[in-house]
Amino acid sequence: MKKEVDSTNKILYELDYLRKRLREWEAVFENCRDGISVVDKNGFILRSNPAMQNLYQLPADEYVGKNVTDLVKEGIFNISVSEEVISSKKPVSRMQEISTGIKCLTMGVPVFGDDGEVELVVVNSHDVTELYSLKESLIQSKKLVDGYQAQLTDMRITQMQKEDIIVRSKKMLDILDLARRLAIVDTTVLIMGESGVGKEVVARILHRANPKRSEKAFITLNCGAIPHNLLESELFGYEHGAFTGASREGKAGSFELADGGSIFLDEVGELPLDLQVKLLRVLQERNFKRIGGTKEINVNVRVIAASNKDLLDLVKKGKFREDLYYRLNVVPLKIPPLRERKEDIVALARHFVQYFNRKYGFEKILSAELIDVMEKYNWPGNVRELKNFVERMMVTSEENIMRAENFPADNSAESVHLAPNQITLKGSSLAEILADVEKKAIAEFLKNSKSTTIAARRLGISRATLARKMKKYGLKRR
Fold this sequence. Notes:
Helix content: 40-55%
CATH class of the largest domain: Alpha Beta
CATH architecture of the largest domain: 3-Layer(aba) Sandwich
Strand content: 5-15%
CATH topology of the largest domain: Rossmann fold
């Protein structure tokens, strides 16, 4: 008897526990802010909470008990997530649109029976209409900003063209914009960059855009192009009789000539250490003495320095004074090489073509194939090399349309390299082995060239010869 009572009490306790848990789950189901529905394995909706009714804006009896396929046909919602779950036996998430215009992120999760088959699908729908609208607004705002940015870039390019400065790349536009902002103050600027990148162009902008100095002198001095024994007199001038061969009247140096304006010291890293001391004094005191002179000469000069060498590395090696480096490096401007601003290559090339057409009375243009070769080339000499190449091609080409073969062959784009493991010798004779290697080489050059013209030039053969060999080996054009 006691065992029966204990067993009954245990059952009653378990029933009471289950009722409590059921009430908890009912409370969660009914009060959840997300829409929840339970769908059976055949696609019929068994239950739905109030939040789902609010999303559909329908009473439960108008869709509970119906098949989800029919509800899609009726247009209650555009897709059925539960059908995909039943079919795939995996959780599925989709963007679902309700007939009321509400957009939901809907996720269906399968519930499996003892046989391993889908028995129920629990569907959870979260209203993301506001987030979706915000996303669309952000997309439209980004498009608007991008449009304004494009217009601003066009305006910047147009302004540069008015000053005969050719630039398309954002990198260079940003540098030139910074140069304009720096121009209105007299701070010392150090321009860094490889030889030929356009350091003097930037220096001239710094001078021309300065309202106080633009009408004054802009003096340039290449410190690496003048012998060291003459460099001091070029910089600071000399008095009568200062040294053998000196002019009877003496001579003003570059700093005197630049008074009120700007002086551009190119390749400043080439200055000998003794002149570095004197230059430092000029930067600090704004005065100096001519060679052989005793009178202090005061100057109001903006100093713009440039170097294609790493001055900090020269400081570490003891070849450049550290105090002068920091005095010059108040504001550094690093100009990227031409290979890092590909957008500028074609614009500059066309500008130089127009320039030499006017100079020589030509009417020449660049072909698309030649432009492709120029864009692929590494340009170690930067803008200066580009200008030289354009002039060379224009004066040596016979036709008005300059083609890829006119590009200097000894400086063309990088060679195609076949790794040793790419070459497998096939054939029973030397002739067969050579033919197989030739076929592979031609195929590789065709693969890495945009046209057969470029491939032929890089292979060092004519287009006609390449065409015959392609036919011989059954190779197709790109």
